[in-house]
Amino acid sequence: MKYIKYKINNNITVRKFLEAKDYSKRSIDEILNSAYLLNGKLKNKSLDLKEGDEFKIIIEDEDLDYEPIEGKLKILFEDANSLVVSKTSNLTVNSKNQVNLSNYLAYYFKENDIRNKIRLVNRLDMNTSGLMLVAKNKYAHAYYQRQVENNLIKKKYLAVVDPNTDLDFLYEARISYDEENKKYIASNNGKLARTYFKTIDKNDSYSLIECEIFTGKTHQIRVSLQSLGHPIYGDKLYGSDKDLDRFLLHSYKLEFKTFIDEENIKLEDWPNFMTFLCKK
Asked: Pseudouridine synthase RsuA/RluA-like domain: which residues (predicted)?
């Protein structure tokens, strides 16, 4: 069992304090109904907090929900409530029928005495590499999900497309699932996907495009670039004729405020695409 600890600086009720810390209503109700510690004593209703009080939220131990399997994890950030890893390509995030990133995370949790389930804040396709945010407990996960819903977590990707491509604009497309062809398509009946595309390098062999997403629709970068006539290298599902071991899309920038401390974290992780570009 672990705790989230606060030192109270002003007079306020427990509920108002948790609301000010951006806990979700569901999390607040759960904390008040289950129990918390106020100056070392167990409580289970919204009492008045006073300056100088020590307030602790109880984090109950949980069983791991994935089999722990040892695997290489590239960790770029970690604190008491979250960590950021860079996922490799050709690795699913949580597929039950093959070894996946969640198996590696479960092994890391077990080895580091993190007694909680695996909670992914964002997800990447199997062949998309890059930065992923992982919550270490249910309250951190609820906090980060609220940030995602309010578009407060900034994510940027790098994609490789055809040579000498100039892009610098916000692109809006409606995307829906094509059941017959088993893929997503641009469609007037779909959900709105908003992406800013900007060329950051180009030559006679390829162009490197920065993609900032403002919505979290499945395959939105891949579908949008295909719609623009610039499919991602190696992405055969969405129109590429390049025969690569993966498609060249990487989540390379992540910015968010941490749970509890609200520290602004900015991370970068540049991909090594040249190995694949030499094969094209």
From this structure: 83-226
